[in-house]
UniProtKB/TrEMBL annotation:
Organism encoding this protein: Mycolicibacterium vanbaalenii (Mycobacterium vanbaalenii)
UniProt name for this protein: DUF1542 domain-containing protein
Disordered: region residues: 228-250
Superkingdom of this protein's organism: Bacteria
Length: 262
């Protein structure tokens, strides 16, 4: 009797083990398929970006700078997809490439060319808003400008989104004032003052200075947008963006340089 119970127990244990193994194997296959799909999707966008970067040459400061930024995003995305070990990392590589396509689009606009088809929205882009008027402010001994259009005075484009947890509206700027935070991963003390001076009262910008200071994420913006009608918010979800460096994910490359950090 005891022998029969022992055999039965062994059979139950073996069945459980086989079930666990089969479940784990199926899960691994799903993860592998998801990674392959994400990589294929990312490579499609990266190849599209590469074709644009290599085919275009800037004709003025604005278009040249935009194409230089597009080239940086192409290099970063190519490196990211080569190292991607998870579907999330592949998605971030695609996000980097999409950012590059926005820079290409900006360069084409600066050169009075057809900008091409509309692009997928970037993470945090819609809730960050867009520059809708010319602004010129004095900040720490230098003059910084923002404009909805490129010019000799505003040759630096940003497609809009979050940098180090804060929103940066899409637009053209006299200098890339967001890059110190992009490199350091945090904003300096003066960033709130600059944001307030630059965007206070500007329609189309998705955050006020207090929200910028508190670092509200896109979820906050989305919730607020749901209760407003045309108040400068346009909904839009957030999947973490191309700058997410937490939990083993990585995004935008190291742009380096000293832009007069705040």
């Amino acid at each position: 009797m005891e022998g029969a119970l022992l055999v039965l127990l062994l059979l139950v244990v073996a069945a459980i083990g086989a079930g666990v193994y089969a479940t784990a194997k199926a899960s691994n296959k799903r993860r592998a398929a998801s990674l392959d799909d994400a990589k294929a999707d990312a490579r499609r966008v990266i190849e599209r970006l590469g074709g644009q970067v290599f085919a275009l040459s800037g004709t003025d400061n604005a278009s040249k700078q935009a194409l230089a930024d597009a080239s940086e995003r192409y290099t970063a995305a190519s490196s990211q997809i080569d190292q991607a070990a998870t579907a999330r990392q592949a998605e971030l590589a695609k996000e980097s490439a999409m950012e590059g396509l926005y820079y290409v689009r900006a360069a084409r606009i600066a050169m009075d060319m057809d900008p091409g088809p509309e692009l997928e929205s970037l993470s945090g882009q819609r809730t960050a808003g867009t520059v809708t008027e010319d602004r010129r402010v004095q900040f720490e001994g230098r003059e910084i400008e923002a404009s909805p259009v490129p010019s000799q005075r505003t040759p630096n484009y940003y497609p809009g989104g979050r940098v180090a947890g804060r929103p940066v509206p899409a637009g053209w700027y006299s200098e890339p004032w967001w890059k110190p935070a992009l490199v350091a991963g945090a904003w300096g003390m003066g960033s709130v003052l600059l944001f307030s001076a630059m965007f206070s009262g500007m329609s189309g910008v998705g955050y006020d200075a207090q929200a910028f200071e508190n670092g509200y994420g896109d979820g906050y913006g989305d919730g607020l947008a749901a209760g407003q009608d045309g108040g400068g918010f346009d909904g839009g979800g957030d999947t973490g963006g191309g700058w997410d460096t937490g939990g083993g994910d990585w995004g935008g490359g190291d742009f380096g340089g000293d832009f007069g950090g705040f």
